[in-house]
Design goal:
Layout lengths: L3 E6 L2 E6 L10 H16 L5 E5 L11 H6 L8 H10 L5 E5 L2 E3 L1 H4 L6 E5 L3 E3 L13 H9 L1 H10 L3 E2 H7 L4 E3 L1 H16 L3 H11 L3 H20 L2 H11 L10
Parallel strand pairs: 2-3, 3-4, 4-6, 5-7, 6-9
Antiparallel strand pairs: 1-2, 7-8
Length: about 250
């Protein structure tokens, strides 16, 4: 089965995470497919807007933990980093629909979307610390900026989930809707955008984000260096092994 479904219609490219049996956790191959799709959407005039969505029960359980354990990203050209650079620098509008758990990169990728619609069952979390890791996707910069420092510290130091209403309050999502409607709402908004002059959309997004690309790129390189090192260290290895063995991690020995 194709783990990333790609559909283009009426100027909208819809990318659907489709690995439900593993809670839409994202493998290197899936990051590669997402990065390739964004690169295609960037250059193809017929694609004016991209929608990223999951299932009404789950957006994404984050990075595939088996990949973290057995094939961690090795270089800046690894699919995950290609995807992160692609989403952070994407020049056309990006719309997301999020229902159920959005773990790790399932939450941090939303920081790079322009419009986000959440099901009222959405549960966002960035449990990097609980996995012996540190933030990625420039979330160490963007989350404090968006949430305020203290709420960011709860999300990133405690790594506890927060829910749709809190996400609405801090501005991570635009609207909370019933889970069965989230993908349709995102699609309707995307179609509204696709009917507008693309040059105006691109220029307006560029101006709203002016100054950010270089700062985000620099932060992602710094985060990536730490994240890549920490992935191979004992705390993270224990966290991933514990997840695979369906037990609680024991950090007392690392
Ligand atoms: N990587 C690889 N496999 C994953 C996964 C991940 N990130 N998340 C879930 N899965 C797999 C489980 O191992 C399980 O596989 P199995 O059926 O072969 O045993 C299957 O998906 C179902 O997961 P399960 O945990 O039973 O589902 P749930 O509904 O009880 O919980 C989550 C859903 C998302 C809350 C939970 O799976 C979870 O916390 N996942 C890990 C999230 C994480 O830490 N991601 C990394 C962030 S950096």
């Amino acid at each position: 089965m194709n783990d990333i479904l790609t559909h283009v219609d009426a100027g909208v490219m819809t990318l659907t995470l489709n690995r439900l049996e593993k809670k839409n956790s994202i493998t290197a191959a899936m990051y590669g497919a997402l990065a390739d799709a964004l690169a295609r959407a960037e250059v193809e005039a017929a694609i004016r807007v991209v929608v990223l969505q999951g299932h009404e029960t789950i957006f994404s359980a984050g990075n595939d933990i088996g990949d973290f354990l057995n094939a961690p990203p090795a270089t800046s050209e690894s699919p995950v980093y290609r995807f992160l650079r692609g989403i952070a620098s994407f020049s056309k509008p990006l719309v997301a629909a999020v229902c159920g758990p959005a773990v790790g990169i399932g939450t941090t990728l939303l920081l790079h979307c322009d419009l986000v619609y959440a099901g009222d069952n959405a549960a966002f979390s960035m449990p990097f610390v609980n996995l012996g890791l540190c933030p990625e996707a420039a979330s160490s910069l963007l989350v404090p900026r968006m949430f305020g420092y203290h709420r960011a510290a709860e999300a990133l130091l405690l790594g506890e989930p927060f829910f749709a209403e809190a996400a609405l309050e801090v501005g991570l999502v635009n609207r909370v809707v019933p889970p069965t409607e989230a993908n349709a709402v995102a699609q309707a908004q995307a179609r509204k955008l696709a009917a507008k002059p693309i040059t105006s959309l691109i220029e307006t997004k560029r101006l709203m984000k002016k100054g950010q690309p270089a700062i985000l790129a620099e932060r992602m390189v710094e985060e990536g260096a730490s994240f890549g090192r920490m992935l191979r260290e004992p705390a993270a290895r224990e966290a991933f092994t514990a997840f695979m063995e369906k037990r609680r991690p024991d950090f007392t020995k690392v």
